[in-house]
Amino acid sequence: MAGFKIPSGTKVDRFIIENSLSESGGMSGVYLAKIENLRQKVAIKIANTDNLGATHEDMLLDWEANLLKQWDWRHAGIVRIFPVPLLGGKTEYVVRAKDLPNNPWYMVMEYLPGDSLAKKLPELYKYPIHWKLELFYKILIPLAFIHQKNFGHRDIKPDNIVFRSSISPDIPPDPVLIDFALCTNGQEKREIIDNSYTLEYASPERLAGLEEDVKASDIWSLGVILYELLTGKLPIKGSKEKIRTTIIRERIEVDKDEFSLPQEQGHILAAFIRAMLKKKPEERPDIRQVIYALEEKFLPPRI
């Protein structure tokens, strides 16, 4: 099924596909669907299953579902997974799609009608600074929940932050973290999880293949995202090789004048980002320190 798009109207058990919610070429596809004979919308994540046997895509989907289905992983800022009813009154969280070629594995999640942060970045670049900081704070909270369990998300990026509803500069944002396929506590040694990353948001130690503190890697990704929220661009640009080399070998400079903010605000936020983008993971603040620093320097309520 690699690269295959499921057409609108296709039936997957009791769900009817309406359209794709994800870009092609990933390890799995996410689709908007409705439940047969009901108006309720859901999101279905379908692995690119191969008919020759279990694939990395199958393994990652199963891993993600087994995390999210646990009762103590329920959080308003984490995408919700739904059980799928089966014959005989049983329910499962990962099932085979018997109506599709190769009978791929799939799971069902809540549908988040707002767009991803990636799609909204050009628009919200013009939003007030305090709205952006409130958004950043609301990304920190579910991530802190994960870190308290000694797990790291390990794929924090704008594509994996989705809004529950349309955004407005006058309404507090309601972001939700999605895609937990690479989430780990660092003790479950699985090659596909350890070696997968999004280059622009990956920490130096991860790109270099060094021993990784999964929570510190998330802090690095947060530093990149905060920079992007404030400037509308990534801190490092260029070819894939240039980005990789810069992240691993060079110090990333962040200047307060890049943010078009009052001098004091720019100075504080530049220092925030520089701290999160320290080369050595042990020198980065932890999530608790980031939350407290943000609250102390930019007092809530912010909107």
Number of domains in the coordinates? 2
Low-confidence stretches are none
Secondary-structure arrangement, i.e. CATH architecture of the largest domain: Orthogonal Bundle
Helix content: 25-40%
Shape: globular
Write down the CATH topology of the largest domain: Transferase(Phosphotransferase), domain 1
Give the CATH H-level superfamily of the largest domain: Transferase(Phosphotransferase) domain 1
The profile of the biggest β sheet is: 7 strands, antiparallel
How many helices?
A: 9
Radius of gyration from the alpha-carbon trace, in angstroms: 20 Å
Structural class category:
alpha+beta
Q: Can you identify the CATH class of the largest domain?
A: Mainly Alpha
Count every beta strand, where a strand is a DSSP E run of 2 or more residues.
Answer: 11
Mean pLDDT: 92
Order of helices and strands: EEEEHEEEEEHHEEHHHHHH
Percentage of residues in DSSP E strands: 5-15%
Distance between the termini: 45 Å
Notes on the structure:
- This protein is α+β, with helices and mostly antiparallel strands.
- It folds into two domains: 100 residues, Phosphorylase Kinase, domain 1 (2-Layer Sandwich), CATH 3.30.200; 181 residues, Transferase(Phosphotransferase), domain 1.
- It is 34% helix and 14% strand.
- The protein has nine helices and eleven strands.
- The strands form three sheets. Strands 1, 2, 3, 4, 5, 8 and 9 form a seven-stranded antiparallel beta sheet that branches. It has a two-stranded antiparallel ribbon with strand order 6-7. A two-stranded antiparallel ribbon has the order 10-11.
- A hairpin with a 5-residue loop joins strand 6 and strand 7.
- Helix 6 runs antiparallel to helix 8.
- It is globular, with a radius of gyration of 20 Å.
- The termini are far apart.
- The model has no long low-confidence stretch (mean pLDDT 92).
